[in-house]
Specification:
globular, alpha/beta, binds 1,3-dihydroxyacetonephosphate, 8-stranded parallel sheet, TIM Barrel, 253 residues
Length: 253
């Protein structure tokens, strides 16, 4: 049985003070006996401080991006080993905002995935189609291409406890969520791609849905058999909404 995971991607938001207040509220409100893993992904500069605040809470820390390089003359970059050093367990790679706004190709994303793995961290690999691609009926082709770019470069066992997040670009920050059925169809497709290589890996793989997840729609999404939790943007900045999403996921098991 896959344990659900709810991850908050804070993106480029907040300050030291609001981040600290947010984790205090989340840690204070989370059920100790919860049947869900919970993670927050603050901006790089706040990671160490948030790591300290999360001590003893069981809440995981993730980074929003990473360099594909492990060290050297790469001004402005942050290496996976550094993220591990400050207490991260996970790193988001291939978020659509990185792909679209910062030019990250499938190949770059695959190298970042491998850099995260090499540092013994867990990647959270984001895949998803744009509205045009969905309208053209190429959702599966896009998701396959994004996933295969990684799977072709690693042995399937290297997937380990990596997480995949299906985030349809048209649902991100728009308030327009994929219906549970739309999301389930793509999640089942992703699991099938992994199952073609390893049935065991596919059965264990957590596939999160991301795109306007809120307390009000989380339960219906998480009720789907292949949706193992959420990667949450806007609603993760509101402790009450984020906690409602966590408890919706906890109810899944
Ligand atoms: P929203 O929840 O704000 O739509 O963002 C989703 C997302 O991009 C999470 O990574």
């Amino acid at each position: 049985m896959r344990r659900p995971l709810v991850a908050g991607n804070w993106k480029l938001n907040g300050s030291r003070a609001t981040g600290a207040a947010l984790v205090r509220a989340i840690a204070g409100g989370i059920e100790r006996s919860r049947a869900v893993d919970v993670m927050v992904c603050p901006p790089f500069v706040y990671l160490a401080e948030i790591a300290a605040a999360l001590q003893g809470t069981g809440i995981w820390l993730g980074a929003q991006s990473v360099s594909a390089e492990s060290g050297g003359a790469f001004t402005g970059e942050v290496a996976a080993a550094m993220l591990r050093d400050v207490g991260c367990s996970h790193v988001i790679v291939g978020h659509s905002e990185r792909r679209a706004l910062f030019g990250e190709s499938d190949e770059v994303v695959a190298h970042k995935f491998m850099a995260v793995r090499a540092a013994a961290l867990q990647p959270v690999l984001c895949v998803g189609e744009t509205l045009d691609e969905r309208r053209q009926g190429s959702t599966e082709d896009v998701v396959r291409r994004q996933l295969e770019a990684v799977l072709q470069r690693i042995s399937i066992e290297k997937l380990g406890s990596a997480v995949i997040a299906y985030e349809p670009v048209w649902a991100i920050g728009t308030g327009q969520t994929a219906t549970p059925e739309q999301a389930q169809a793509v999640h089942a497709f992703i699991r099938g791609l992994v199952a073609a290589r390893s049935a065991r890996m596919a059965a264990e793989l957590r596939i999160l849905y991301g795109g306007s997840v809120k307390g009000s729609n989380a339960r219906a999404l998480f009720a789907m058999p292949d949706i193992d939790g959420g990667l949450v943007g806007g609603a993760s900045l509101d402790a009450a909404d984020f906690l409602a999403i966590c408890s919706a996921a906890s109810g899944k098991t």
